[in-house]
Amino acid sequence: MSPSSKKLKILFVASEAAPFAKVGGLGQIMFSLPKALREIGHDARVMIPKYGSIDIARNDLHLELEGLQLENEEKDPHGMLVCNVLRYEDENKNITAYFLENMEYYEKRANVYGYNDDPIRWVLLSKGVLEFIRNSEWKPDVIVSCDWQAGFLPNLIHAQYKDDPTLRGITTVFSIHNLRYQGMFDPQFVNEMDFDAGQKDIPPIPDETIMKLNGMRRGIMYADVINTVSSTYAKEILTKEFGEFLEDLLNERKARLFGILNGIDTESLNPEKDPDLAVKYSAKSIDSRQSNKVVLQKQFGIKEDKDVFVAGIVSRMDDQKGFDLLIQMLNQFMDNVNLQLVVLGEGKPEYRIFFEKVKEQYPDRVGVHFSFDSRLPRLIFGGADIVLVPSKFEPCGLVQLEAMRYGAIPVVRKVGGLADSVQDFNAETGEGTGFVFEKYDPFSLTMAMVRAHEIFKQKSTWAKIIKNAMNQDFSWKRSAADYVKLFEMAVRFHTEKP
């Protein structure tokens, strides 16, 4: 893939970005993707709110712009909507990040999400970004708005700012990381009066009708191009099963809808150099990987045995991730197969209770850890034989990519990014990187795990699968090149607008 002739200026707008504020996968993407784009010559930057938890001195933030007035004095007599913009740049200029500072909506809040007025906070972010660009020397060619929290931005450019000479030339891309999350409501239960068709202008802050706006719908409606995080998920969301009540709108705009698989940071996720692994290894030295299994067993308090079949789960515990399937099949599987299981995750109490009971039932074979520890995922990927990802739907999924990097073989459902990244193992050809099942039911998951266990007994075949998995290229460099093509296409679409 040849690099672009024109170097683009790209601004990502999101609710979180590592290392400053990271709650989920989006935060990591907002660190890795701009960095990868800069490495191939593009000027990619990111902008998020300046939350109270982000320390100015520790992060070496500097004032970039002071006193941005987001509403006129009549609408904002007490100056609650006056914002500053802070800037971070690392020594090597690999990262440039901006932070929208506002006392009322960000500085007084330690957390990223979870406030009753969240939609107002996100409209503030979109307006703040646009006012910053209007007053800044640096002007992006492309703005990438991420998920419903930044979905108001393409709408504002299209409506309130449509005649602005600075903003009307900027291309907008709306990036969907999970279609299910659309605002402060469940789209399944929205009544007719509260339904947001996306046609009315966004009201001034802090008008309470903002609470009923669907940021996801508006991002899809008004962006020049829509992308999501795998090509299969881009096709799935056109259907009623995966469309989350937006499938009709997405079908209207499907000529502008694309999917690009996320990457992973192959520098920090590297079993040859990972400081948290007891024994380093590569695809050429997988025999030494077994020593990490014993360390993993010790960490989770289960019987130390380097020859036993170990399954790992690294996941948010909710229905999307297939935990209802695990509840239905796990006890019977444990009774019939010599399996150890290590579980790392947070989420619904009923799933936590279930795994606590399973641990009581099989104390030497099941280990659980319910709070986040940055070391533990890599210990699991470096020591487990398989990693279970039986998702109901999965826009991209990072766990299976990270697991394969470390030689833990994914057992996945053929859905979304899992379908795009894991190739079902074929015993005849020796090709494949995991074990894939199609139907969302406990029997299909059981059969995939049985297959994995049977092939695990064939040591040379299992070694072949590990090498296949570890030799896959899921680097951000690959994804970044695809994003450049997408941005160039979006610029053409924007230029060709009537």
CATH class bucket of the largest domain = Alpha Beta
- Basic shape: elongated
Mean pLDDT: 93
Number of helices: 16
Radius of gyration: 24 Å
Number of strands: 15
Percent of residues in helices comes to: 25-40%
Across the major sheet, the strand order is 3-4-5-2-1-6-7-8-9
Largest sheet, in brief, is: 9 strands, mixed
Provide the CATH topology of the largest domain.
Answer: Rossmann fold
Write a short abstract of this structure.
The protein is α/β, with parallel strands linked by helices. It has helices at residues 25-39, 103-107, 118-135, 152-158, 215-222, 231-236, 247-252, 290-299, 323-336, 349-361, 376-383, 399-405, 416-421, 442-456, 459-470, 476-495, and strands at residues 9-13, 43-49, 62-69, 82-89, 96-101, 142-146, 171-176, 225-228, 257-259, 309-314, 339-344, 366-369, 386-389, 409-413, 435-437.
Any descriptors?
498 residues, Rossmann fold, elongated, 15 strands, six-stranded parallel beta sheet, alpha/beta, nine-stranded mixed beta sheet
Structural features, described:
The protein has about 500 residues and is of the alpha/beta class. It has two domains: about 10-265 and about 475-495, 3-Layer(aba) Sandwich (Rossmann fold), CATH 3.40.50; about 285-475, 3-Layer(aba) Sandwich (Rossmann fold), CATH 3.40.50.2000. It is about 35% helix and about 15% strand. It has 16 helices and 15 strands. The strands form two sheets. Strands 3-4-5-2-1-6-7-8-9 form a nine-stranded mixed beta sheet, sandwiched between helices. Helix 9 links the parallel strand 10 and strand 11 (about 340-345).
